[in-house]
Amino acid sequence: MSKYFRWIRQNLNNIYRFLITSMTIILITLLFPNIGNFKYEYQKGKPWMHETLIAPFDFALLKTDSEISQEKDSILNKFYPFFKKDTAVITEITNKFNSDFDKKWSQFTKSGSYKKLNNSNQTKEKEFLRLKEYLILNLSKIYEFGIADFQNEQKELGFKRPDFINKSVNNLNEVVPTENIYTPKSAYQFISNQLKTDFPSSAYQSFIQELNIDSYLLPNLFYDAAMSEQVKASMLSMVSLSKGIIESGTRIVLVGDVIDDHTFLVLESLKKDYENILGSSQNHYLIVIGQCMLIISCILLLFLYLRNFRKQILHDNKKLLFILLFVLLYVALTTLVLKFTKVNIYIIPFALITIVVRTLMDSRTALFVFIITVLLTGFLAPNGFEFVFLQLSAGIMAIYSLPRLERRGQLVLTGIITFLTYSIVYFAFAITQESNIADIKWVNFMFFAINGLFITFSYSLIYIFEKLFGFLSDVTLIELSNQNHPLLRQLLQHSPGTFQHCLQVANLAEAAINKIGGNPLLVRTGALYHDIGKMKHPAYFIENQLTNSNPHDKLDFDKSAQIITDHVKFGVKIAKKHKLPQLIIDFIETHHGAGRVQYFYTSFKNKYPDKEIDEEKFTYPGPDPFTKETAVLMMADSVEASSRSLKEKTPETIRALIDKIIDKQIAENRFQNADITFKNINQIKEIFTNALINVYHARIEYPKENE
């Protein structure tokens, strides 16, 4: 049992990679539709390249999208929206009106305009009842017909005022013309005109204005969305998707025949029935096995690429999980979009894969992950060849247009280029298939535009993936290398000499990496932070000493060596406190590797030749550089620091110093874990030599003016 657990611990990473890969394959298989694949490829306007096709069974001939759309429009022209009458409104309005009328009539009879009428009390009572009953009767008639606020319904629900509506009263429906339905405005106009005719007196007209009749004219007919949509759906369900039967044995197309509109429609109808029959057959599990094998093949191709060209990604669980999740995400997104007939698959920003993976990893990996994703989704997409060709064109152009993401404005340009690529390639496909510009589906260009717009939002997506998976993008490196970064400003304030040293090392390392290949932005940023640990005891480092007084003169050699080596430990601690990425911390840990503090080691050995030396006290904690960038930084750091001690700075002395330092590092096997060659090292020496000669070049002495 102990051997079993030991084996698990030893192979934990391999088990983890196997599990996440297996889970990805299973989930993608589940996302694939359980239907077979039609075994023939064809395109409208192209010749039939297979054997003569005979209908293998009876199948329905599908209608075209335009035919179905026309039938639906025809049916919807006969559809009248449902409006439900709220019978409680008239009751509430009547109660409110009775109360308000009585109060305002009492005030009206006390006014001067009414007293001028000289009405007796008996007349006064008759007029009260006549006007009140008149208004209640007219309000009842208006509410009986119904009041509907069509203008508000149009704003809220998006439909125009229909010619007819279904008026629903107590679950009884009646089709009525909308001209017989009042709006609040038309109801007020009607009752106002009636009152002017039947009560022309200015005194009564003044009272009617005080009553504010329009406040009692509220809608009592309201759009019944649930009923309307239910009836509309029922009517549309009556539309047949087919328009005939192609009988078994009918010749569909001959070898070499150009596929015209009718033949294309017949082939599409056969394809749909063929795939459904395969999916519903007893052997449908064979389809699932075949789909699973295709998915495994694609994932295997991805792993072969990583194994041969990007082993560091394959062995990094977080990066591998990121790639597999990204592939799974796009397959799931494609499956989801294909379920909505009103949304086109071209709205999915596949080119975003190249941008995100390129920014977080590299261009080659981005292209390979993109190709694998497009191949997998190509099994799902209609017109698979057209889909794959379009996506590859757009994805490759996206990579070319964004060699390095440094500004958000670059994403706008990439989005425009992607949109143009989609549009041009799709237009080329469309005119070869339709041979008529009028028949091109221009709505697809809108989806291409939305696709390009989505790409401009990838900046936020990159940030999210950086934080979730611990990536370090060029955008973050640019932010970190800004000299106004709080930690760099702190370094400048506490250790100005060290800050200048870091700048010079950054310039040397960046120039070298640009020559031999690598990430210049990464090495520059790492160089700027590699000595931040010196802020703990800045005065103990010679570049920060402004006087001839050296605090090391008062310390033992081993104590001095401890202070010098501890700047690596303190640097890592400061970097973690400020949440610097691990890739930057690697530069701090490796810029001296596991080398010795040679000055104090030699001094101790000379002073105490018979005393046993504790090597650990004079040795940096390491590790040695393990990447090309960290190796270059070690060379640049040692060369720049040592060049300051040269008494005579000539091309010969500078070249000799650089050779001596780097050759010693090679002899100590400092670069055995780094991916760097002797050719690279010779190139680096030459770059360092030229750079330092330019820094320390002799200047002419200006003549003094004779007095």
Automatic annotation (TrEMBL):
- Residues spanning the membrane: 15-36, 285-305, 320-338, 345-361, 367-390, 411-431, 443-465
Q: Does NAD appear among the keywords? A: no
Q: Which SMART domains match?
A: HDc
State whether keyword Transmembrane applies. yes
**UniProt entry keywords in alphabetical sequence:** Membrane, Transmembrane, Transmembrane helix
In terms of InterPro entries, this protein maps to:
HD/PDEase_dom, HD_domain, HDIG_dom, Metal-dep_PHydrolase_7TM_extra, Metal-dep_PHydrolase_7TM_intra, PgpH_phosphodiesterase
Instruction: Indicate the segments forming the HD/PDEase domain, all copies.
Output: 494-651
| Pfam families the record matches | 7TM-7TMR_HD, 7TMR-HDED, HD
| Name of the protein described by the UniProt record | HDIG domain-containing protein
Species the sequence originates in = Labilibaculum euxinus
